[in-house]
Each structure stands twice: as C-alpha cells, then as structure tokens.
Design goal:
The chain is α/β, with parallel strands linked by helices and about 325 residues long. It has 16 helices and five strands. Bound molecules: zinc ion. The site of zinc ion (ZN) has 9 residues, from helix 3.
Length: about 325
C-alpha cells in the first residue's frame, strides 16, 4: 500500500523528534487502509532498531518478530464485535492496558477500530484515558469518513486524514493483489469494483472477493423492477438478502448519495443506478435525497438494537418507491 508511506514517514519523524501525539484520529474512506496504517504505525513504534528517519521497522529485532507473529503484548486492538459497537467493557480494558507498564516494548499502542462506533457511555469512558494520558501509551483511533465521532473525543486527538490514492496507484495495487490467483477477475470487473468503492483499494478487493458484484447485479435488477411496480416489496427484498444487511445498507447509501449527486447535476458513481436516479432527480426536491440518506443511517443504528434486517430492507425499499410519480407506482 504505497499511499501509506508518506504518513508513516511523518510518524517516524515525530517519533525521532520526540513529539509524538498521545492520540491520533485517522480518518478516511471505508476500505482505504486505515487499519493497515494503524498496524504499521504500531510496528514502527515498538521496533527497537529502526533507522532514524525511516518509516519502516527493522523487521529483525525481538519486537518486530512479535509483531510479525501477531502476538505483541503491547499492541491491542479494540473493535466492534457482534454488537457492531465498541462496548464499554472493551474501553475499560483499554483504560487498564493504558495505565499498566509495557511488557516488552517502550510503548503501548491501543487501536480503536472504530472510534465512530462508540456509544455515549463507551465514549465517556475513553475520554478519561484521553484526558490523563500515561506517557508511554499511544492511541490510534480510526474513523470512517461520514460517520461522526463524539466531539469531546475528536478535540483531544491529532486529526490525520488518510487520502484515497490516485487512480493509477489504486489500480496497480489492486491488480498486484489479484495476480497469480486461479481466477483473476477481468479488468472491467476490477475497474467497476474500484469505481463502486470510490477508489478505495482495500474495499474494491473486498467487493471482488465477496461476490458483491454478482449479488449487486441481482439486487439492481429487482430494484429497478420494484420501482416500476413490476414486483412486490417482498420479492425485491429477497434479492437483497444474499448481500447481507450491512452490504445492502452500503449499497443503498451509495445509491442515495448518487441521487443527491444527480440532483446537483453530477454523475452517479454506480453506473447501474444512473438512469433510475436521473429519473428520480427530475421529479423530486433535493431534500428527498437527504431524507433517504438519513433513513439508511437510522437503519444502521436500529440494527444495533437487533431490529429485523428484513423489515428494515422493506421499509427502505418503500421509501425509495415513494419518490416515484404516483401513476408509475400504481402500474
Ligand atoms: Zn525491529
């Protein structure tokens, strides 16, 4: 991931000059490589024999060996599990880790993947650690673009944007990852995956690996039929079931954003939805797109409370259909 290099070099510089921030909030698009960046920063921080100015760990010392074996005791990751949120007991564990002495390295590194998935209680618990930092702990908080982080947390971090790489860099990385596989996806599919991923290479790879492109095709088909009144909501929702709810929400959020782009005179990111959103954009005021985005975000939150994913898909589909002119819907 060559686009991480400048960011790593900057961290190395801060480390060399003894002005490493206690907490950093890395934000970037989904699938741009935030987690990988955090892991590489951690490796830099614990390495004992890194060359001054280098953004790479030595790869040889005991610390590096522990990192390679994925068993370094001074690097911890706190991420949402089944609950889809970082729980308060995870943050409490982080706080204890932060005040304890490092076991083998000079630093302890705590990665919160993701800081935009902290509820109020977990956020407040984390705040204590941010306010009274131990000297030897470094916190790396990850935030997906478009998902808010509590302002009290944000204000105590150095903000570090991780930009999406240029198209040629992303394309090169993606094809290098796929090279040598038994079945290499065609260049058209690779380009479509990158396009749908907004240029985020890791996400594009995930889309190719998960069969998303094929499932999206089926969902698109059902969606177009449903919008014209050709199939029932139950039939349309079935086509989305294979995607899983998380991917369904991502897809629909992408389409709602495409609707907003179309209303503003721009092009849809998903070529498959372009005609539909153009049609809807002509007949609806701009706030309807925002209303859809809000409904999708609400759906995401509702899932944390174990709301039925099927019902949420139905509800969102109906909301989309309400943007159609009445006579088309009746048909
Ligand atoms: Zn090393």
């Amino acid at each position: 991931m060559p686009w991480l290099t400048p960011v790593l070099e900057r961290f190395a510089q801060d480390l060399d000059q003894g002005r490493l921030p206690h907490a950093t909030l890395v934000h970037g698009e989904r699938g741009v490589g935030k987690r990988r960046l955090a892991e590489r920063i951690s490796a830099l921080l614990v390495c004992e024999r890194r060359a001054v100015g280098s953004g790479e760990p030595c790869g040889q010392c005991r610390q590096c060996q522990l990192v390679t074996g994925d068993s370094h005791p001074d690097i911890r990751v706190y991420q949402p599990e089944k609950s889809r949120m970082v729980r308060i007991d995870q943050v409490r564990a982080l706080s204890q880790f932060a005040v304890a002495s490092p076991q083998v390295a000079h630093f302890k590194v705590a990665i919160v993947d993701r800081a935009d998935q902290l509820n109020i209680n977990a956020g407040n618990a984390l705040l204590k650690t941010l306010e009274e930092p131990a000297a030897d702990v470094v916190l790396l908080l990850l935030q997906e673009t478009g998902r808010p982080v509590l302002p009290t947390i944000r204000s105590r971090c150095r903000i570090l944007p991780l930009a999406t790489p240029r198209a040629n860099v992303a394309t090169g990385w993606l094809s290098a990852q796929l090279a040598g596989r038994d079945e290499v996806p065609g260049t058209d599919d690779q380009a479509l995956a990158l396009h749908l991923a907004g240029g985020a290479p890791r996400l594009a790879l995930e889309l190719l690996d998960s069969g998303f492109l094929q499932q999206r095709e089926a969902a698109l088909d059902a969606f177009r039929q449903f919008m014209k009144g050709g199939v029932s909501v139950a039939v349309a929702a079935r086509a989305f079931r294979d995607l899983g709810h998380e991917a369904t929400l991502n897809l629909m959020e992408g389409w709602a954003n495409d609707l907003a782009r179309s209303m503003a005179g721009g092009d849809a990111r998903d070529p498959g939805i372009s005609e539909v959103v153009k049609y809807l954009a002509a007949g609806n005021p701009p706030w309807r797109a925002q209303q859809l985005v809000d409904a999708i975000r609400e759906s995401r939150r509702a899932l944390v409370n174990n709301v039925s994913p099927e019902l949420e898909t139905d509800r969102l589909l109906i909301q989309w259909q309400e943007l159609m002119p009445r006579r088309r819907r009746a048909g």
